[in-house]
Amino acid sequence: MKITLTLLAVLCSTSLHFAQVKDFHLDQEYAIAKNGTIDLRSSDANVFITGTDRTALAHVKIDRTVVTKGWSASKGFFTVDVEANNGNLVIRERQSNQATVLFGYISEEYTIKLEVPEGVSLQIKGDDGDYWIKNIDGAISLDIDDGDAELTNCKGNKFTFNLDDGDLKMSGGKGSLSIDANDADLTFENASFSSIDADVDDGKLIIQSSLSDNGNYAIRSEDGLVVFDVLSGSGQFSIRHDDARISAEGSFSSKQESEHFTELALGNGTAKVNIRADDANVRLRSQSKN
């Protein structure tokens, strides 16, 4: 009995924390070229990236606060390294386990805010975080797991998205679009992509874009919904399908139709749209007058 009470007293003295706060704060400017690249890797952060009329500096503001209450064992570390190198900016999060909650709860607030020249490009890899990006005119690459992203007024010519279990919404966009997504919903509005290469498994892909002359658009979907809303332009649509439902609204004409293949034409344009749908539904709509 004495041994049990002694052991319990030791545990209480070393592991019982009624309030524990661990903070990390960074608020600093770093040199960056107006068309440099930001390479960011983070986990569990809400990330806000805004392009401005800055020409040689990036403002980096990072705030992380962790609060645990109850029985917890705390150890490890957290820091963020920021390095300016040859006109680019590399941001790396480094951490080990901060706290193990035995009884009680843990709360974390973690934000990364970047104000950067609007001409920069982004290379982002993240886990369990959400992203808001606006006014960025360089190439954008997002590789995120279990997170959502929203892009507004981004005028670059190259967009690459790799998503697993998350949603993405983009307003605007041109040039090339590459997508590899699993269990994700993606929506693109008011775009003018000249090429698309999309592979979506078990999710929704909704694209509202014009078609470019000689443009190539390849879409593969296993199980979900594909919507292609043509704002302007014309071309040929080839759809290979298994157990899929195909619908077309607007000035489409049927060229060929069989159990597993549907070919449609929209005007006399040279754009080529190839869609491979297994158990996905495909909806085409045209606002084009061509």
| Average predicted local confidence, pLDDT | 88
What Rg, in angstroms, do the CA atoms define?
Answer: 25 Å
Helix and strand content put the structural class at mainly beta
Tally the helices: 1
- Report the uncertain regions: 1-21
Percent range of helical residues:
under 10%
Helices and strands, in N-to-C order? Answer: HEEEEEEEEEEEEEEEEEEEEEEEE
Shape: globular
| Major sheet attributes | 24 strands, mixed
How much of the polypeptide forms β-strand, as a percent range?
over 45%
How many β-strand stretches? 24
Quaternary organization: single chain
The span between the termini is 89 Å
Report on this structure.
The structure is a single chain. The chain is mainly beta. It is 5% helix and 68% strand. It contains one helix and 24 strands. The protein has a 24-stranded mixed sheet that branches. A hairpin with a 3-residue loop joins β21 (252-257) and β22 (261-266).
Task: Give a nutshell description of this structure.
This protein is 5% helix and 68% strand. It is mostly beta strands and 290 residues long.
SSE topology sketch:
Elements: H1 2-15, E1 16-31, E2 37-43, E3 46-52, E4 57-74, E5 78-85, E6 88-95, E7 99-117, E8 121-127, E9 130-134, E10 140-145, E11 149-152, E12 158-164, E13 167-171, E14 174-182, E15 185-201, E16 204-209, E17 216-221, E18 225-230, E19 235-241, E20 246-249, E21 252-257, E22 261-266, E23 271-277, E24 281-286
Parallel strand pairs: 2-6, 2-8, 3-7, 3-9, 8-10, 9-11, 10-12, 11-13, 12-14, 13-15, 14-15, 15-16, 15-17, 16-18, 17-23, 18-24, 19-23, 20-24
Antiparallel strand pairs: 1-4, 4-7, 5-6, 19-22, 21-22
